[in-house]
Fold this sequence. Notes:
mainly alpha
Amino acid sequence: MSNKSDSRTVALELPERTVSQLDALIRCGYFTDRQEAIAAAVDRLYNEEPQLSTTSQEAFARLCSALHLGTTRQSLRDAEIDRLTWESERH
């Protein structure tokens, strides 16, 4: 690990598959060592998180407004009565 004053030492126990993937990335020249690869992955996930939250929030807002569609308690009751009437006529 580098000796930067803001660095912290963290011991990780990673699955063998993950270590193999890290080593493959290093062999291909994408990163110089495992630390650099892990730091890049964390940076990428961290930087994408606000976009994911915004996207999720926007999707939730669209869903809520799509569900509203002028639905009221009375319209729900009327729809339930219609459904029950339809079902009772079929039996």
